[in-house]
Design a protein that fits this description.
By secondary structure, this protein is of the alpha+beta class. The protein has a domain of 107 residues: Beta-Lactamase (2-Layer Sandwich), CATH 3.30.450.20. It is built from 3 helices and 8 strands, in the order ββββααβαβββ. Strands 1, 2, 3, 4, 5, 6, 7 and 8 form an 8-stranded antiparallel sheet that branches. A hairpin with a 3-residue loop joins β7 and β8. The longest helix has 9 residues. It is globular and about 45 Å long.
Length: 178
């Protein structure tokens, strides 16, 4: 390689590239109720006005959970910090028993040989540390074999954490293919 050649290709400006704007919405970390208004709630008003139990969190609008979704909020230490009623029923554990426990005591990757940066734990850590792109993983309850759940992992907060939305295997949506 000559001294004038660069080991990396030169960067170039791409004209007309679209910048995708991401919309964020607030929701209750317990009942998934939407926060009133579009403005962020005041720090002293972050307890849900609907259920009175959950903390208001912000996430990307396209992954915003509803009251029909089973979801968990996991911190960067991979500990459960919140859990919806639907997740409690799906995983057969109460929120009181799940909070501050490692997520691996509730959910594990469905593929026992799954490794690498695309793994379930890596997706949680990435979301909790600032990766704004939602990812998908296949998981199972830690003590149940043969059950597979699709998990959507996205960032939420503050404080920064990962939102895991579980798709109940009984609620798979089928669509007609022509």
């Amino acid at each position: 390689m000559s001294p004038t050649q660069s080991p990396k290709p030169a960067l170039r400006l791409v004209q007309g590239a679209r910048v995708q704007t991401v919309e964020w919405s607030w929701f209750c970390g317990h009942c998934a109720a939407a926060a009133p208004g579009d403005a962020p709630p005041a720090p002293t008003a972050r307890v849900c006005r609907v259920c009175g139990l959950g903390l208001l969190l912000e996430t990307r609008s396209e992954v915003l959970p509803t009251d029909r979704d089973a979801f968990l909020v996991i911190d960067s230490a991979l500990s459960v910090q919140a859990m919806s009623r639907r997740a409690q029923a799906l995983l057969a554990v109460s929120e009181e028993d799940a909070v501050n426990r490692p997520v691996v005591e509730l959910l594990v990757p469905a593929d026992a040989e799954a490794e690498g940066p695309s793994g379930f734990a890596a997706a949680i850590v990435d979301a909790a540390h600032g990766d704004d792109e939602p990812t998908t993983a296949v998981v199972r309850p830690w003590n149940t074999f043969g059950v597979r759940l699709r998990a959507r992992v996205a960032p939420c907060g503050p404080p920064r954490a990962a939102l895991i939305i579980l798709q109940d295997p009984d609620e798979r949506r089928l669509r007609a293919v022509s």
